[in-house]
Write a structure and sequence with these properties.
single chain, alpha+beta, Aminopeptidase, four-stranded mixed beta sheet, 2 helices, globular
């Protein structure tokens, strides 16, 4: 539905995009080129996109896995707060 990008010297460093998961909620995704990791580009792009989505009257959300620490850092640094956590468990084998 909407996207933003970061460029340097005509080369793309990263992009964030929003998909319409419902009429009232858009999910944000981000990708940063390996050579641009650690520059704060992901947080900047996600924050810009989040703010524009809110300005349009839509609820933005950013989904990440509990094990993906870099993605969690981007979410928190962009102003998102955890709303729920999903856990899965398996029964131990009875030997």
């Amino acid at each position: 539905m909407l996207g933003v990008g970061a460029f340097r010297d005509g080369k793309i460093l990263g992009m964030a995009g929003a998909s319409a998961d419902s009429p009232i909620m858009w999910q944000i995704g981000i990708n940063v080129m390996p050579e641009a990791e650690g520059l704060g580009i992901a947080k900047m792009l996600v924050k810009l996109l989040k703010n524009e989505i809110i300005r349009r009257g839509i609820l933005p959300f950013y989904g990440t896995a509990i094990s993906h620490l870099a993605s969690q850092s981007v979410a928190l640094g962009s102003g998102f707060h955890p709303a729920w956590i999903e856990l899965a468990a398996m029964r131990a084998s009875q030997g």
